[in-house]
Specification:
8 strands, 4-stranded antiparallel β-sheet, globular, alpha+beta, 11 helices, 393 residues
């Protein structure tokens, strides 16, 4: 098994064979994937070498010092953070070979077709139907809050394949081609003015059974892998000290002494400490991931991320006074990536309102932490054993 020194040597060999200054970006990224240096903990032939995840830092450091391009992870975050680990765990060998390389390189953008107008917090109540037709499934339904759907080639999709069993058991997980006939993407303009999200209508969309992940009817189990990784990717991203939302407000505090008050100082100190604790907790969580799959701790990190972003952005607007009420640009646009901290204070304040909804609402995550982390009794549920078709909607 390669050690750190061997990985550094392998990385230098990649750089010698494909000098970043003389190799086009996509070509370099493909060569990196084929060398097993994309995500070293993945199996050989799938962008990795089957070594511990912790060794990735040595590879990344060598590539960064050489000025090598990255794969723009913010643009393809759904593919990297949600689709890839699910495909790795549940996909067939053919599916892994087909999807993982263009996903990591960024040739193909992914989106997530999970939430529905009537199945957001209660995702298992979803009503999108998939009916078997020979070697295909015919899918009809509506999905909502779909980031990057306007850019995506592929989507991870869950649909109901058996309405006669309880809601968690009649769901199947698919990979959907967003360019297929019957897939319609419509923008959803947000409070920020952007249409970062979309709603997606599926009308007689044919999905081959070869694009199913996991057994028929076992899609809820497969989806749990996606959801756990989603919460880790949102709440546990790597940040430097004063990275994220706390950065702009501390910068304003240092540069604008005329805005300071004793009360704002006390609140900023408390939030700075909480942000640093959350950052270090995220580092600990990433170290735990080296040993296996993410657990429910990701839900706690996502909860903290949402609350802190909203409180910090609110403090920043208050610190800036009248200036904080200004909003630079309300232009309707469909951005290529999610930007939690960009633009001005007004944008950060408005955009943070979505943090407690996306990736699992804070209320749902509180239940998950209570039941799965703290071991508290589950909430009473009278629909657990009822067939989905008999539920009130």
């Amino acid at each position: 098994m390669p050690d750190t020194a061997a990985l550094r040597l392998r990385t230098r060999e990649l750089l010698e064979a494909h000098p970043p200054a003389a190799t086009d970006r996509a070509g370099f990224l493909r060569a990196r994937f084929d060398a097993g240096l994309a995500w070293v903990h993945y199996p050989e032939g799938l962008g990795g070498l089957g070594v511990p995840r912790s060794l990735q830092t040595a590879v990344d450091a060598e590539l960064e010092s050489a000025g090598a391009p990255d794969n723009d992870p913010r643009r393809i975050g759904i593919g990297l953070g949600m689709a890839a680990p699910t495909i790795l765990r549940y996909g067939t060998d053919e599916q892994k070979r087909r999807f993982l390389r263009p996903l990591w390189v960024g040739d193909e953008v992914w989106c997530q077709l999970f939430s529905e107008p009537g199945a957001g917090s209660d995702l298992a109540a979803l009503a999108t139907r998939a009916v078997r037709d020979g070697d295909d499934w015919i899918v009809n339904g509506q999905k909502v809050w779909t980031s990057s759907a306007h850019l995506a080639r592929w989507a991870i999709l869950i649909a109901r394949t058996d309405p006669d069993v309880p809601k968690h058991r009649g769901i199947t997980y698919f990979v959907c081609d967003m360019t297929d006939p019957g897939v319609e993407v419509r923008p959803l303009r947000q409070i920020t003015g952007e249409a970062e999200f979309n709603e997606v209508f599926l009308t007689d969309v044919r999905i081959p059974d070869a694009h199913r992940l996991g057994p028929v009817g076992d899609g809820w189990k497969v989806a749990q892998t996606t959801l756990m990784n989603e919460r880790v990717s949102i709440g546990g991203s790597r940040l430097p000290r004063e990275g994220g939302m706390i950065g702009p407000v501390t910068k304003a505090w240092r540069e604008r002494p005329e805005l300071r008050t004793h009360d704002l100082h006390q609140r900023l100190l408390a939030l700075w400490v909480e942000a640093e604790v959350a950052r270090l907790t995220g580092e600990r969580l990433r170290q735990q991931l080296v040993a296996g799959q993410p657990g429910p701790e990701g839900s706690g990190m996502k909860l903290s991320f949402a609350r802190l972003n909203q409180e910090i952005s609110g403090l920043e607007v208050e610190l800036l006074g009248e200036e904080g009420l200004l909003y630079g640009d309300w232009t309707m646009r469909r951005p290529e990536l999610v930007d939690f901290t960009g633009r001005d204070a007004g944008y950060r304040y408005l955009r943070s309102k979505g943090n407690s909804i996306e990736g699992g609402t804070s209320e749902v995550l509180l239940n998950i932490v209570a039941e799965r982390v703290l071991g508290l009794p589950s909430e009473p549920r009278n629909d657990k054993d009822a067939a989905w078709k008999d539920l009130a909607r």
